[in-house]
Write the structure tokens for this entry.
Amino acid sequence: MVVIALEHKVKVRVRKRVVIIYLLMIIGCCLLFLRLGLVKIISGVDINTKALEQWLRRAPVEARRGNIYDRNGKLIVGSALAPSVVAIPKQVKDIENTSLVLSQILKVRPEQIKAHLQKNVSVEILKPEGKKITAEQAQKIAEARLDGIYLVGDTVRSYPYQHYLAQVIGITGIDNQGITGLEYIYDDYLMGKKGAVNVFTDAHGNLIPDLSGNYLTPTAGFDLYLTVDLDIQICLERVLDNALARYNPDEIIALVMDPKTSEILAIASRPTFNPSRYQDYDQAVYNRNLPIWKSFEPGSTFKVVTFAAGLEEKVFSLEENFYDPGYALVDGARIRDWKAGGHGKQTFLQVIQNSCNPGFVEIGLRLGKQKFFEYVNLFGFGQKTGIDLLGESTGIIFNPAKIGQVELATSAFGQGISVTPIQLVNAACAAVNGGYLNQPTILKGLASSYTQEIIYQTTPLTIRRVISEETSQKMRYALEHVASLGTARSAYIEGYRVGGKTGTAQIAIDGVYSESRYILSFLGIAPMNDPRLAVYIALENPKNTIQYGGVVAAPLVKEVLMESLAILKIPPQEGGIPLDLRYWVDLNTYTVDNYLGLEVSKIRPTTKYQFSIHGSGKTVIAQLPEPGEKIIEGGFVILYTE
């Protein structure tokens, strides 16, 4: 009985153990199936995504940078197709042959290509050797059918007008990033969003047959619209090119501004550069935008500010007489006039008309240090104008508390202080536009590259009022006399009311003013009854010419004004001041003959003016100035043959 009982207990225990084992097996299987279900159903998407990420090889595709247009929608800077070469190193079966073929097409050493192909990376951009290659090179690479080598879409900046607006537009790098100028300032808007060519490979670089790649379309950047008028810009650039050829100055600076809004209509300087080949130029050329960066003594063009301040403070009247013996004595210092012997008895209207230095010394002294420099600050000198361009300077203005009467006297006619061209032009605009100092701008707005819909637009910003409307009206009247009866008669345009101010400033070298190096300038405004254009041109150290701003710079400004008035369709005005007899330093003017339809080979040189022939055609189809218009002696007549 005892044996039977023991056997029964053993069987019961075995059964329990078997049941427990079965239960554990069933629970284990359930847990396994549950885990598989979780992995397959719930976590499957995430795991699959991670797997795809490991298999994915992305070949980046650069987005097209936004275009840059002028105020009228004319293209200034665009983008052109320039493919780039990308490699998946693990797919390259024959590194030696691939390196040799690519090196021959890209014109580099095979070792340079081989270094890219030997990298332990999933995707390698052949940079810089294979970035932004030509269409011909891309075709040869495609025809070579090299394993692991891909061509992806890329773009390069296109400049239809080459060096025009070069320092303003700026340059872009090899990865389409903005480096200088507007390209840098508005890079976030212009850049766009990159795309990609996606392919799937295993760990050995082989394409996974069941997985097809895809193309992620890049998004183009926003387009920029500038305040610049391209037609006026082209005119200004041509005038500067001609001046460079004729006078060979060290530098030329030019600005065209709308006096009412301070919008930049054109801006240029020399030396300049071609943005598509900026590496060929000195960094100083493409890093310095001279019209806003360069700071120098303005000379007599600064007299606009002194005259406006004196009129506003009523320290003189236009009809009041002043005697100029040819110099002014200030604290024992003898300050000479530009004209030997002086101008004698004249009114204060004639003081600005004749650019009489002693007359402006008198105005400065009557104003006094505090009041004079108060107006200097009000007109925006000694501070940045706030224009949306890089590298603007502030200029250098005396501290009234640390100077004497002599420094006040010289500052009154633009000597001893330092200003930038944009400060000077903006201040002159305030003097004639009713008395309002505005903030200069060059950005007109931003637009979608796809719909051309404007998404942002700038509005003119007035900083402050500096003089009254009455004073501004007197300034317009006085400056018109300068162009009709005074030192700027070379800028007179028949039928239009032109005003302005000449400048002839000596250049200081090692603290001493040079007797042979000058900055010659002219600031012209038209029409004076309703100012629409302010044009400033300055030449540093022009060669082989009389050193007067009215002789050298004024005719250049006149040419820009004449063409710009036509571009803006501004009609002639009545009530202007007739042109007076010329000075001995003035040049003759001649009527331009008609060369339309003539063969270039039959056009003979003349002593009246020079010719500049554009195009490779045989017959003249257009000319500037047009037949019958006036031109300054020695000026250029542009003949177009195509």
Q: What stands out?
A: The chain has 19 helices and 28 strands. The longest strand covers residues 512-526. The chain has a mean pLDDT of 87. The first helix runs from residue 2 to 42.
